[in-house]
Write a structure and sequence with these properties.
heterodimer, A: 544 residues, mainly alpha, Cytochrome C Oxidase, Chain A, B: mainly alpha
Chain lengths: 544, 93
């Protein structure tokens, strides 16, 4: 048997050929790549929709979009980015591809269920698109707040059903990962020998499994309310609109951690590799991942300070919000401490990781403004909030996704990309990002509300600058993707371990063979022991 | 992987079913008595115990390792805590 052939040349199962070798595959790596293709498509579409919103806001008055179309487009932008990109991107793409490899096994525990998750994900996307062309896409925002979502004539039911189906894809992936980590780890790999990306996926999977059913049931209740006028959430029929907000955020705030935890895992992988130094505080990072999963699930009502809930609840949830900042800060300090006195080697993945640390820290610290009950009242539902969550979700998860792409691309496709263009694109995206979102903090503090297609004259300069930065950012994103895609035209030139990584995915050829390893992988006593790498890698990373 | 047959005696299964039914009756019963905030905590506590019994006996979690048992039972009680936390709002309006 030829063990050197990559998974691209060896379909699973062997009788499948052509497109069927992808559509019916049970190989976790192929499924990961199918997720990459799908999430990449949705991401770029939602980026362009976001660009349209900012173009409309660049100049006062109606310029490009009508008010109704603006409402539908920001809803679509939010729904696609949240449900079709950020939630699945890191776990479904990189988790699928690398989790089994990092724990030294050949696949996930339920390969067929894994494929089914992908189909559910695609089905959810198709239903979301369908709702566009039936009765018009909802204009509620991605939160589907009642009572508006049960009274609007747009097609809310189909859109929430899409989110319901996508929830199942997410739950099944979480279930698969938890089982795989428990049951299929290399026999010599103890819990404290698991790489930090896999640890972050473990924490994420529990949140996926536990919190997603809540939103699924809630969205079904919205449909029931719309079709049968039951009066669950509509105050006119005796329902509780605040109950909806509790149920919605009970999932959707933990979902923020579903989005960010794997991103933190990616950064924890990249930083030590390019600092050539063992990660600072391995156990503290593991503990903080689990602590974020637990504490992050108990802070949801900080989205609801102005909803009319009790003052006691405001106090309790504000306190808990400040508590959850602690484990996040532990990670940031650990990354910086890892870099301290390391033999740092600058590469595009490290550059993007450093951008992540800066942008995510700004996002985290501005989150404290929103977590504080007093200050939140001032900036609630303003552009300050929009900027804050883009700093955490895009500056955080989005940049972690870019960093992961650049870090694992050579392993996934066996090809190196052009470093120069990767740097240029990264600088454009980061610079554009800052010019795009910092003016929104100021606009928010000045009182400009979110979700309006027009504004008062005093907000014109800020909106113009934000739009200008946004254009740079979008150009940078497309440049980055083009650079990566163009690398596929090159010959396969990536070595097995181009960076000097020590986790198990670097112990196998690039791209990996069907069963991941050509021999028995050697599990290190400590997963970030770089002593051998330091001896071996007294050279620059391979760039063609 | 080890694949043993784990079989409970019919008598055990019957007793568990009986306990589940009794706990359900208690839940219904206490819902008819106004005990203030205690109503909610009792209902959630009983529901958590019932779910744990189903997991341990009917779904054979009892035969798994300690890590798995602790993980799954924690999720049940955590869900109860999450639902209970909504009463920071409702209980103090």
């Amino acid at each position: 048997m030829d063990f050197e052939k990559s998974f691209f040349e060896t379909p699973s199962s062997a009788r499948l050929t052509g497109i069927w070798s992808w559509l019916l595959t049970t190989d976790h790596k192929r499924i990961g790549l199918m997720y990459l293709f799908a999430t990449g498509f949705w991401f770029l579409l939602a980026v362009l929709l976001g660009g349209l919103l900012r173009l409309e806001l660049m100049f006062p008055g109606q310029t490009l979009l009508s008010s109704h179309l603006y409402n539908s487009i920001f809803t679509l932008h939010g729904v696609i980015m949240i449900f079709l990109f950020i939630i699945p991107a890191l776990p479904a793409v990189f988790g699928n591809f690398f989790l089994p490899m990092q724990i030294g096994t050949d696949d996930v525990f339920f390969p067929k269920l894994n494929l089914m998750s992908w189909y559910l994900y695609m089905l959810g996307g198709v239903i979301a698109i369908f709702s566009l062309f039936s009765d018009g896409f909802p204009d509620t925002g991605w939160t589907f707040y009642v009572p508006f979502s049960i009274s609007t004539n747009t097609n809310v039911s189909t859109a929430v059903f899409a989110a319901f189906v996508l929830g199942f894809a997410s739950m099944l992936t979480g279930l698969n990962f938890i089982t795989t980590i428990h049951r299929m780890r290399h026999p010599k790999m103890g819990w404290l020998q698991i790489p930090l990306f896999t640890w972050s996926l473990y924490a994420t999977s529990w949140v996926q499994l536990l919190a997603t059913p809540i939103i699924s049931v809630t969205l079904v209740l919205v449909m029931v309310e719309r079709y049968f006028n039951v009066g669950l959430f509509d105050p006119a029929r005796g329902g509780g609109p605040i109950l909806y907000q509790h149920l919605f955020w009970m999932y959707s705030h933990p979902a923020v951690y579903i989005m960010i935890l794997p991103g933190m895992g990616v950064i924890s992988e990249i930083i030590p590799v390019f600092a050539r130094k063992s990660i600072f505080g391995y156990k503290a990072i593991v503990a903080s991942s689990m602590a974020i999963a637990v504490a992050g699930s108990l802070v949801w009502a900080h989205h609801m300070y102005t909803s009319g809930m009790s003052d006691t609840a405001v106090f309790v949830f504000s306190f808990l919000t400040f508590v959850v900042a602690i484990p996040s800060a532990i990670k940031v300090f650990s990354w910086v401490a890892t870099l301290y006195k390391g033999a740092i080697e600058m590469t595009p993945p490290l550059f993007l990781s450093l951008c992540f640390i800066y942008l995510f820290s700004v996002g985290g610290l501005t989150g404290l403004v929103l977590g504080g009950a007093g200050t939140d009242i001032h900036v609630h539902d303003t552009h300050f909030v929009v900027s804050h969550f883009h700093f955490t979700m895009f500056g955080g998860t989005g940049f972690a996704f870019f960093a992961a792409l650049h870090y694992w691309w050579p392993k996934m496709f066996g090809r190196m990309y052009n470093f120069k263009w990767a740097y240029i694109a990264s600088v454009l995206v980061t610079g554009g990002f800052i010019f795009h979102y910092v003016p929104m903090f100021i606009l928010g503090l000045q009182g400009m509300p979110r979700r309006y297609y027009d504004y008062l004259p005093q907000y014109a300069n800020g909106n113009f600058m934000a739009g200008f930065g946004g254009l740079f950012m979008i150009v940078g994103i497309f440049m980055m993707m083009t650079n990566l895609i163009l690398s596929l035209k090159r010959e396969r030139n990536a070595p097995a371990d181009p960076w000097g990584g020590v986790t198990l995915e670097w112990m196998t050829p690039s791209p990996p063979p069907l069963h991941n390893f050509t021999g028995e992988p050697e599990v290190l006593d400590y997963p970030y022991d770089f002593s051998k790498v330091i001896e071996k890698f007294a050279r620059k990373p391979k760039e063609s | 992987m080890e694949n043993k047959d784990h079989i409970f005696a019919y008598k055990t299964l019957f007793y568990v079913l009986l306990v589940l039914l009794i706990l359900t009756s208690i839940t219904v019963g206490i819902s008819l008595v106004d005990m203030g905030k205690l109503n909610v905590w009792l209902a959630l506590g009983i529901a958590s115990v019932k779910a744990s019994l189903v997991l341990m006996v009917f779904m054979h979690l009892k035969f798994e390792g300690r890590v798995l048992i602790i993980s799954f039972l924690s999720t049940i009680f955590f869900l109860a805590i999450m639902i209970g936390f909504t009463f920071w709002d409702i209980g103090f309006r």
